[in-house]
Design goal:
The structure is a homotetramer of 260-residue chains.
Chain A: E1 4-5, E2 11-12, E3 16-22, H1 29-42, E4 46-48, H2 66-79, E5 82-86, H3 93-99, E6 102-105, H4 113-119, E7 126-129, H5 136-149, E8 154-158, H6 176-183, E9 188-190, H7 193-196, H8 202-211, E10 216-220, H9 238-254, E11 258-259
Parallel strand pairs in A: 3-4, 3-10, 3-11, 4-5, 5-6, 6-7, 7-8, 8-9, 9-10
Antiparallel strand pairs in A: 1-2
Helix pairs in contact in A: 1-2, 4-5, 8-9
Chain lengths: 260, 260, 260, 260
């Protein structure tokens, strides 16, 4: 596995397990600083938070943009956490890259090859999500756009695919973990929040992905999910996340990894 | 959760985890007795083995029929294990019921409502697999055919669904575990062998299902998978299974269950 | 293509197009005789009507059973139409075979291999539906169970498959028409009613399937769909069907077939 | 339905059927001019040809870029055909817009909301393809990004979705035609080439889509498909297309449309 150096203190290696948590969207200073402090106390070192949001409907909340990036930076300053946020286009890429420690490419842009080529020119770690309509081989194809462009600091994320089952928002394809480990040299993370769609399914999916051998998790946690401006149903509260964190820790002992 | 009494010694309750293992098909006395002894030593108490086989192509091995049932009974006699085997039709139901401790209804018969009604008239525990083209709600509908007919000794099995992903034979829908636990009162088992399709993916899927909160596993184990008459690629060897068994044990400690 | 002789007057050959219509379920004498007369006048020669119904939920209407078969026979007697009805199990197979001119195997029994073997021993034409979770190759496998058992009077039916799209009940896979024509020697019919799920989508799907080269249609028509005991939303009224019939006729002129 | 004015001579209205044809990729002057002349003679007025190609693998031919746009312009000059080509990113949007009469947004960018917003600021007609992993409602969501941005000259395209069936490259969802007609005011075109994946399935899918009520087709035609640099298997030869054109014409008479 390729080691992914995130900052001076964090490096994702074979024997490590990267825990990323934070709200779906950055909404306010109070929200992001509050949840960052809480997560840091639990042991989380990477804070997620969307500021440019790819929403299915144009009427939906589209994110705070640069204002959100600044709030994320403030959270980093205060807590020392690394921050990850999504980039949606080349136009905002320099801005996002300036603020973020990890650049996220979302599910809907997983085959946005122009964006992948542009991101490949930067030196920051990239978290590349599988498109919900994409095969594992297509995800690998997308990772090659980054690698051939010069950036091999890639973390792949399984986040659920489209199937006929409607009890959950997407169907988490846990088998992507062993298949990707076999076919690529990149760490594989699980996003249990989007396939769950409902917060009470996040824990079992997170545990499943971890037990399948994942190298990390990216989980949506919100100080007050009911009032979230996006993905309200699937975000965990801080206490829910804390409980999950302990269980994940025990599973990583079996898969021989230490949470970072 | 409804407690499922399998025989005088085995009862699947909330705090137990049922391990079922054995070959895809019963092939010979040597094969089934050999693997039964090995599995019993590891701690497995329920032996699986198909004798009536639902094969996609009529030219494929269709199972030993009653001869296979007799061999399963001999394995039970010698090892004390309970036996489970699949019934494909009402015609052979009395025969299967006579021999089996648990009656299995396979994925392709999950909506064979006539068979479900017939099985519901017996008193034996039933292991009902989800059809690979069925929603969770349809599986629950099928379980109601059993329950309304009089048999509530039902164990439900998630065994992978059809999706666009072709790296694995089917896509294991681990979220079926929490969803079924929420919507029904029956134990939920995971079959990691059929979604894996390839033996090296069986372990991660088994671990994922267990960590998601499953109440048991049903796994294909063959003394010599390469020479198996069906599902050669996905069956584990006995040493592979032994290694998996230990990891499953550790996960069940986290989910607070004891393997039976 | 194998010619399918249905009765002394009807034979489905390469240059013919078989129109089958009738209610989802036989509900009463008035209902089935009324709709049969109307359909016969329009030019339909094969009447469909379910008397043993495979319903997802056991509480749903399960069909009139033998009573329904008798009503179908009365409709045949009066109108001269051939009748087709579904068989769900070996137990009722002799009864169904006694009454029906064409034996239907439904989507949920498409891989009920025991039933296929039993039906293969009879000499009546068989209409075999694709399972909604089955690939085209699996449908062909199922047809081999019939052919190897001795019955090659097979008509294959594409009736929609399970996909992530929820605007329609199933997704009609029109490409199954050319693929099956290439890979088998059997006529291929389209069932536009089940994939549509809603009556106003039945016409476009019927026209699409016909234009794709299908050898026939099987359509649900009810004298009063709103009061139907099953599939109320997707059944056409007689006037709606009449309008569709004319359009289908014009398309079959392009595909060089004559409606029978 | 909203009327779409393409140029001074072409306007897609309710009673018209738009035929778009041309190679997957613009490869050379000889290729594109040759096929344009042939298509124009048959009656085609809009020429397609990719110059920026979204390829799954970075090693695949990525298109001729601006050079290809110039060749398309030369073909327009000579034949008078309108030209349509795909835009992959905001960077090349001004260039593409300068040359193209219709801007195409491909399946992989169907939820590239930044690109949609950028395209919405131009006044050219847009052909928006459904993402192969997207629901019909998501396609409608994407169209709203264009409309709210100021551009309602939208043509929607059904081009096949991801399903478990592997006999064809994608599964054409013909029901998208009536569903989109019901839910939006935009014309709906069918791309039969990508779902077919193999050229001999293109005709039945094109006919199916037309019979389902589509307002047009976009078909890949290449002077010598075997030597095509992309999508070699699914492109029609000119004689194959000519034969198809005549059949489509007869179907549009039934759906009351005139090919433009």
């Amino acid at each position: 596995m390729i080691d992914i150096k995130i900052n001076d203190e964090l490096e994702l290696t074979d024997d490590k397990f990267l825990m990323i948590a934070g709200p779906c969207s950055v909404e306010s200073e109070e929200q992001i600083l509050g949840v960052a402090r809480d997560l840091k106390k639990i042991g989380v070192n990477v804070l997620r938070g969307g500021t440019f949001k790819p929403r299915t409907q144009p009427e939906s909340f589209q994110g705070l943009g640069e204002e959100g990036l600044k709030l994320l930076a403030r959270a980093r300053e205060e807590t020392g956490m690394a921050i990850i946020t999504e980039v949606m286009d080349e136009e905002n890429l320099p801005l996002v890259e300036e603020y973020a420690d990890i650049i996220q490419i979302g599910s809907r842009n997983s085959q946005n090859f122009s964006l992948l080529k542009a991101v490949s020119k930067y030196n920051k770690p990239v978290l590349l999500k599988r498109g919900f309509g994409n095969t594992i081989d297509e995800l690998i194809g997308s990772s090659k756009y980054l690698a051939l462009g010069g950036n091999k600091k890639i973390m792949l994320v399984e986040r659920g695919i489209r199937t006929f089952e409607t009890s959950t928002r997407f169907t988490l394809d846990v088998s992507a973990v062993p298949v990707l480990h076999e076919k690529t040299e990149y760490p594989v993370l699980i996003d249990p929040s989007h396939p769950a769609g409902i917060n009470r399914y996040v824990e079992p999916l997170a545990m499943a992905g971890t037990a399948a051998g994942a190298d990390g998790l990216i989980i949506e946690v919100h100080p007050n999910p009911k009032e979230a401006l996006s993905d309200a149903a699937q975000q965990l509260t801080v206490p829910e996340f804390m409980e999950l964190y302990d269980k994940i820790k025990r599973i990583t002992e079996i898969t021989r990894k230490n949470i970072i």
